[in-house]
Amino acid sequence: MGKGTQADLLSRELRACQLSTGDVFRAASKSHVELSPAMQAATVYMRSGALVPDETVWEMVRERVGCLRCGSGFILDGFPRTLGQAASLEQLMESERLPMDAVVSYELPARAVIARLSGRRTCKECRTAFHIVDRPAKVDGICDRCGGVLFQRDDDRAESIKVRLEAYAESTAPLIAFYEQRGLLVMVDAGGMADEICARTLAALNGRRAARTA
User: Fold this and answer.
1) Which residues are identified as catalytic?
2) Which residues neighbour 95 within 8 Å (Cβ) at sequence distance 6 or greater?
3) Residue 129 in 3-state DSSP?
4) Which run of H or E residues covers position 103?
5) Per residue of the chain (214 residues), what is the pLDDT tens digit?
6) For the whole model, what pTM was predicted?
7) Can you tell me the distance from the alpha carbon of 157 to that of 57, in angstroms, rounded to the nearest whole number?
8) Alpha helices, H only, 132-193
């Protein structure tokens, strides 16, 4: 399963607020309600097939800054993706006097990433993710949680995944060095089943917390 699945599992375990920029983008592209200026700008880029620029992504995150003030903490999924976004987030956290405990980097070979994501199926209603091999739905094509229809997202097709991996190498990978320098990086092996990865992540985060308080 992907990082979105892990963010969902972790938010339940930690009772933390989850902010997924991917879900925000998808909601904006399908919404029939009045959109904020940032979401309107984002839809223009997405419909043309262009990447949403940092400043627009940043404004969409700022509109949801309330999530970062959640009493049980917060989990960011899909943000930051670039050094520019990371720097903006760092400034916001400092101005709001909000702590950042850790940044998790899930490690998995490219071939395994393609196999995992291309097998993912997502519920159209509640966004719960399944996998045709690792986490199949009880009834084929139907969500276990809400009964919604499962579908394969366009960005989960093999050709799209390869493009995403190339973009990761160019813009997202430098974030590892950025957060490593700040002592926030937690590396987690992403092999195995979703529950196993989640347990591994929680153990790493708890170990980090224990080391800080020792």
Assistant:
1) 3, 81, 120, 153, 164
2) none
3) strand
4) strand 103-107
5) 468 889 999 999 999 988 888 777 766 666 555 778 888 887 877 777 677 888 888 888 888 888 888 888 899 988 888 898 899 899 989 998 988 999 999 988 888 888 888 999 999 999 898 999 888 999 999 999 999 999 998 888 888 888 878 877 777 788 999 999 999 999 999 988 889 999 999 999 999 988 887 7
6) 0.72
7) 24
8) 158-167, 174-181
Name all domains of the chain by residue range, CATH numbers in brackets: 3-213 (3.40.50.300)
* Two tokens, residue 214: 């020792």
Long-range contacts made by residues 106-109, C-beta under 8 angstroms, separation at least 24?
A: 106/3, 106/6, 106/188, 106/189, 106/190, 106/197, 107/187, 107/188, 107/189, 107/190, 108/189, 108/190, 108/191
Tokens of 10: 């972790």
Separation of alpha carbons 2 and 113, rounded Å: 8
Give the Cα-Cα-Cα angle 118, 120, 121 (nearest 5 degrees).
125
> Residue 21 and residue 79: Cα distance in Å, rounded?
7
Q: How far is CA 127 from the centre of its chain?
A: 13
Write out the two tokens for 23: 């879900």
